[in-house]
Specification:
The structure holds 2 protein chains of 2 kinds. Chain A is an all-beta fold. Chain A contains no helices and 11 strands. In chain A, strand 7 and strand 8 form a beta hairpin. The model of chain A has no long low-confidence stretch (mean pLDDT 91). Chain B contains no helices and 12 strands. In chain B, a hairpin with a 2-residue loop joins strand 7 and strand 8. Chain B is globular and about 45 Å long. The N and C termini of chain B lie far apart (41 Å). The chains are: A mainly beta, B mainly beta. Chains A and B meet through strand 4, strand 5 and strand 9 of A and strand 6 and strand 10 of B.
Chain lengths: 117, 117
C-alpha cells in the first residue's frame, strides 16, 4: 500500500531554534498534503492544507509565519516551526492525498514528536 | 461546517467479546466518506474501515464492521472477537466528496478502547 514517510520521528531542541519536519510520499504523487497537530490524549487538529506548487491554506488560529509549509514537489512537503518555544511542543502528523480522489483514504506519516526545552 | 461527535471517551471490552463505538456527525452534504482510524500507543494512524455515503450496505473488514445510518447521521464501529491488539484510540472521521479538492478529514474527539483479559 501507499507509504508516507515522516522525518524526524523525534526532535528535542532549545527554545528559539527553527525545526523542519519532512513528509514524503514514497509511492504515489501527493497533490495535497495535510499537517496536523495532536496534543496528548486529544484528537488531531488540522493546521494547514498544502497543494503542490501553491501556497498553503491555514486553519483559523494557526500562525502562518510560525508554521511555514512548503510543498515544492509531488512527493515532498515540509513544515518548519520557526523560533520554536516550549508551547510549540507537540506531536505533528502529516498525511498525503491525491486531488479529487476523496474515495481514497489519506495516508499518514508516523508523526514527529517535537520537544522544545 | 461538518462536525463529528464521539460521545464515549473510554470503553472497555473483554478479550473475545464484542464492543461498539459510537459516532455521529453533522453535515448538509449528501455525498461524503466516513472513516474509522485506529491510533495505538505508537501514535501511528491506521485506517480500520471506510464507508461511502452513497452505499447503503454497511462496510465490513474482517472483525470490524460499521452500522451506517445516513438519515440519523450515525456511523458506529463494531469490533467482534476483540483482541489485545485492538487496544488503542479510535477516531471517527468525515471527508467531503466534493470535487476540486483533496478534501480534509474532520475528526471526532476519539474513544480510548481498553481490552481486558
Amino acid at each position: 500500500g501507499a507509504v508516507v514517510s515522516q522525518h524526524p520521528s523525534w526532535v528535542i531542541c532549545k527554545s528559539g531554534t527553527s525545526v523542519k519536519i519532512e513528509c514524503r510520499s514514497l509511492d504515489f504523487q501527493a497533490t495535497t498534503m495535510f499537517w496536523y497537530r495532536q496534543f496528548p490524549k486529544q484528537s488531531l487538529m488540522l493546521m494547514a492544507t498544502s497543494n503542490e506548487g501553491s501556497k498553503a491554506t491555514y486553519e483559523q488560529g494557526v500562525e502562518k509565519d510560525k508554521f511555514l509549509i512548503n510543498h515544492a514537489s509531488l512527493t515532498l512537503s515540509t513544515l518548519t516551526v520557526t523560533s520554536a518555544h516550549p508551547e510549540d511542543s507537540s506531536f505533528y502528523i502529516c498525511s498525503a492525498s491525491v486531488r479529487d480522489r476523496m474515495y481514497q483514504p489519506q495516508h499518514f506519516g508516523d508523526g514527529t514528536r517535537l520537544s522544545i526545552l | 461546517a461538518q462536525t463529528v461527535t464521539q460521545s464515549q471517551p473510554e470503553m472497555s471490552v473483554q478479550e473475545a467479546e464484542t464492543v461498539t463505538l459510537s459516532c455521529t456527525y453533522d453535515t448538509s452534504e449528501s455525498d461524503y466518506y466516513l472513516f474509522w482510524y485506529k491510533q495505538p500507543p505508537s501514535r501511528q494512524m491506521i485506517l480500520v474501515i471506510r464507508q461511502e455515503a452513497y452505499k447503503q450496505q454497511n462496510a465490513t473488514e474482517n472483525r470490524f464492521s460499521v452500522n451506517f445510518q445516513k438519515a440519523a447521521k450515525s456511523f458506529s464501529l463494531k469490533i467482534s472477537d476483540s483482541q489485545l491488539g485492538d487496544a488503542a484510540m479510535y477516531f471517527c472521521a468525515y471527508r467531503s466528496a466534493m470535487t476540486g479538492t483533496a478534501s480534509k478529514l474532520t475528526f471526532g474527539t476519539g474513544t480510548r478502547l481498553q481490552v481486558t483479559l
